Amino acid sequence: MKPIVYHPSPALYAQLIRPENSHKGLFGSVAVVGGHVGMVGAAILAGRAALATGAGKVCLHVMDERLVVDVFAPELMVRGALDDLGTANAIAVGMGLGQSQAAQAVLHHVLTYVDKPMVLDADALNLIAQQTELQTQLKNLKQPPVLTPHPAEAARLLGCTTDDVQADRVLAAQTIAAKYSCIVVLKGMGSVVAQPDGVCRINPTGSSALSVAGQGDMLSGMMAALLALDLPPFEAVCLAVYWHGWAGQTYETQAGGAVGLNSHDMMRLIRQVVNQALSQTLNSD
Question: Please, what are the domains in the chain?
Fold first, then answer.
């Protein structure tokens, strides 16, 4: 099926306008699961990005039990990786997860929550590529999960080479979506978003400024925040990718170049583009 360049619709933006009489319960709860020893920063970045995108509440379920609080975002609640996820409206798993036996147990635990919208990134993808039992669990989920591979991770999921993936990125994304019954985001310039029936969108936003560690973690947090709002999953994913790329473009414009983007800048830019998009919608009415 031929891909179409994605642009958010005014109707989608209209769903995200907040009423004046609001409370945090209206905007969803996100659980971020990962953060093995030495990699807890990945989970923190995903959680902060979920907050910046508008999630009402975010809980970090981390494997490193030394993390008690994120002092720069103390509103992030910290729990154990195997604690209950039942109150979450959406789950993001894999950021800093690792591939140990303990990580496998955590991913198995997450996949038992079959009714939850779910984003799987990083080592969650590597574990799924290796283990048929996890692939079976993935297909038992009640709605298509979101898989967010970069080209090397996509190659592992398909059992091919990175060059094969890059030779036809649309076909690679569509094949992963069909094979794993998922929505897939094949990351890179012109990220490809595909769903199991072959419907495909190409993201038009982005910048080489985003080519730094942590950006994939933040993108996963953004997706989870929009999924927690109960938006149609494919639209939620496309919009998160669009906003993430727009934030990168905005950094390049403001900084006068693509070098030096850090997580602190990115959180500000996410808030900026989200509010800019929604204010434009309000002002156009």
Answer: 18-284 (3.40.1190.20)
